[in-house]
Amino acid sequence: MKKNKVVIVGTGMVGMSYAYSMLNQGTCEELVLIDLDKKRAEGEAIDLNHGLSFAPRKMKIYAGDYSDCKDAYLICITAGAIQNEGETRLDLLHKNTKIMRSIINEIKKSGFNGILLIATNPVDIMTYVAWKLSGYDKSKVIGSGTTLDSARLRYTLSERLDVNPKDINAYVMGEHGDSQFVAWSYAFSGVQPIYQIASRKDSKINFSDLEEIEDEVRNIAYKIIECKKSTYYGIGMALTRITKAVLDNENSVLTVSSYLNGEYNQDDVYIAVPSIVNKDGVREVIHLALENTEKEKLDNSIEIMKENISKLDI
Ligand SMILES: NC(=O)c1ccc[n+]([C@@H]2O[C@H](COP(=O)([O-])OP(=O)(O)OC[C@H]3O[C@@H](n4cnc5c(N)ncnc54)[C@H](O)[C@@H]3O)[C@@H](O)[C@H]2O)c1
Fold first, then answer.
1. 236 is in an annotated binding site
2. Does the global pTM surpass 0.85?
3. Number of domains in the chain
4. What is its pathway (predicted)?
């Protein structure tokens, strides 16, 4: 296995935003692009290579096929149908399960033995599907989960509080979709709990602002889709962040979609919860003592995931 080799399956808007972000950040040494549309993958590889003289490190970038997966450290699947206006992420379920099945078959045939990162929506369910069909270790199959939603939350809070988003420690948990929620009881601006800030009379935000922010974060993808059909830069950077945590063995806390095996009194489901990510994938699921209402929201998200998974022939 090559420690710094990444394969992207699906060179559409999400796949290429991820590739472009990795090129700019010098995240890996070798990057392979695979797509049903081979010509598109070829063109994208040529275009990216033309940016190499401005990139922070040397990279080998080329369009390939599934035989290139064999010695990769990480494969990211970004292939799939997109959410059309008015469609929820769950509407994509059946279309993308079919696509996932065909891709996982090819990856397995290649002899790949690394980390599988899923971005295809509905991502928590597609991660479960990829894990189930692949038979790989549960910790080595990860979904992008609410990494993007947590970044949206950090940005929105940072704007309201006028604090650097990097200093906002706040997480969106549950489904990457309509049933997601903010774990406000664990949200901090620097060292100050957000609840404490919201309760101060002279504060920039109050409790009703928190509800508004949570709604905005949950629904912002619909606004982007209405404006420009799909979302891709944010998820491209979120995938780069997860990839870096894996390749650099960072042990970083990210709200990826992780397999629950007793944590939060749940099992046999992938859902976004804060998890420690390193070279082995998810090293540890962090089991937070959530407030009752937050735990109810997590259980509700999980119930939706399980109900949809039960409709699939996997
Ligand atoms: N996880 C997240 O936070 C997040 C955010 C945004 C989008 N997404 C999802 O990412 C996926 C891709 O979105 P996009 O905007 O890049 O779509 P896109 O239509 O631009 O690209 C999809 C690509 O997948 C390819 N493809 C389809 N079937 C394939 C197969 N069997 N094998 C190989 N390639 C195949 C297509 O040829 C196309 O190039 C969608 O499911 C979308 O909902 C996820």
1. no
2. yes
3. 2
4. Fermentation; pyruvate fermentation to lactate; (S)-lactate from pyruvate: step 1/1
